[in-house]
Amino acid sequence: MRAVIVGSVESSRVAIEAIARAPDWSLPLVITLPPELAHRHSDYVHLGSAAAAAGAELLSAPNINAPHACEAVEALAPDYVFVIGWSQICRAPFTEACGGELIGYHPSPLPRMRGRAVIPWTILSGDAITGGTLFWIDPGVDTGAILEQRFMHVAADETAATLYRRHMEILSAMMGDALIALALGRPRREPQDERYASWAARRTPESGRIDWTWPACDVARLVRASGRPYPGARTKSAPGKGDLIIWEAQAVAGDRHLATPGQIIERHEASFTVQCGDKSALRIIEWESDATATPPAIHAELGAG
Question: How do 146-153 and 129-136 pair as beta strands?
Answer without folding.
Answer: antiparallel
